[in-house]
Amino acid sequence: MRDTSPPLPLLPLVLANAACMMAMNAFIALLGPLARTLGLAEWQAGASVTVAGVLWFLLARRWGRLSDRLGRKHAIVTGIAGFALSCLGLAAGVHWALLAVPGTWISFLLLLAGRGAIGAFYAAVPAAANAMIADRTPVERRTAAMATLGASSAIGLVLGPSLAGWLVGGGLVLPLYAMAGLAVLALAVALTGLRGGHVHAPGGVLPVRMGDPRLRIPIVVAFVAMGSVAIAQICVGFYAMDRWGLSREHAGRVAGHALTAVGVALIAAQMGVRRLRWPPRVLIGRGAGLAMLGFLAAGFTAASWQLIASYFVMALGMGLVFPAFAAMAANAVAAHEQGAAAGAVSAAQGVGMVLGPLLGALLYGIAPAVPFLVGAALLALVALWVGGARDRSVAATADESA
User: Which among 2, 35, 126, 279 could bridge 40 via Cys, Cβ 3.0 to 4.6 Å?
Assistant: First the structure.
């Protein structure tokens, strides 16, 4: 069934997603101080971040299928409402733990439950939002629209930790309550700003599978792209300490500058996609090639500024890749499959988010440069594979059959 809703106003979707991403990523800046204050081990702190990716992976496809059956706005609003309640629950739980000092394991379980719920409910937003864009945006404008949504995620990635760092002067709990406030703001924007999006899946149609051949390229690219980003994130602080013998504080500043450069480059690249008008296959091939150069450079840097510059180049390439695989997936399926397809691609990103840090840590144990070289090799394979593959977009056929 074709969605007959009016053209999609992107601003409410962009604002709601940016607010959610700010709330989700603000926690990362608080993780170290929280872990030390609550007496958590490093692996417990890491697990509280990983669990969000695990739940995202497990539930993204379910949220996508729900949006196919009940409507995009319904899925987005339900997901953000649960996300807001989860942020509030996490803030209240941490507040209580800081006052009552219940013990390490109870504090750990509180963080695990709160972050898990946050990841589980946020999974609805990218799946249903990309499906809504696919429903109501012409094929030639889908990549640009998805790049705008991706830029809002990058804005949240940059501003969330900055906001937390600014508010932490008022105590560790204040930024957590601010996260919940941002989530409530996102909910208000989604409720009042989103309209329509009611594409229903016809009865008796089998759901899109992760192994669907139409989605093979975007799913593999989503996994490799997110996994490579996670490898770079997990290694940057350790690399700065081990490569140049920096102190923890100096290495932390270098890592912060590198990750800020990543956010800025992602925003710039994804906004630039709106003007390039390259098809998804070309964006993936060229973006993966550019990101590969950044990974290679990172493995052989001789100074901290070179590491920051290499991370900027990585992110420029990734900024071309991320909206492209989302658009490729949307172009490959029919209208009633958009939610399931977006959910499958989002699930692949969740797998990369979970496995990337584990792989990065294992490879780093071999030698500091190895994770970057492996990331470069994976991206080179993607560039060669997608660049040499036939464009599988079948949007016109899908629209006709719908």
Answer: 35
Measured between alpha carbons, how far is 198 from 390 in angstroms, rounded to an integer? 32
Write the CA distances from 226 to 219, 285, 371, integer angstroms: 11, 16, 14
Q: What distance in Å separates the CA atoms of residue 25 and residue 239, rounded to the nearest whole number?
A: 22
Residues 6+ away with beta carbon under 8 Å from 365? none
8-12 contacts: CB < 8 A, separation 24 or more?
8/132, 8/133, 8/135, 8/136, 8/137, 8/145, 8/197, 9/193, 9/195, 10/133, 10/145, 10/148, 10/149, 11/193, 12/189, 12/190, 12/192, 12/193, 12/194
pLDDT tens for each residue of 328-348: 988 888 877 888 888 888 888
CA 300 to chain centre: 27
Q: Is the pTM of this model over 0.85?
A: no
Least confident of 79-93, 102-116, 238-252, 374-388: 238-252
Spatial contact of 388 and 289, defined as CB atoms under 8 Å apart: no
Structure tokens at 187: 């909910």
Q: Provide the 8-state DSSP code for 211.
A: T
327 with 350: CB under 8 angstroms? no
Q: Give the end-to-end CA distance of the chain in Å, rounded to a whole number.
A: 5
Average pLDDT over residues 27-38: 80
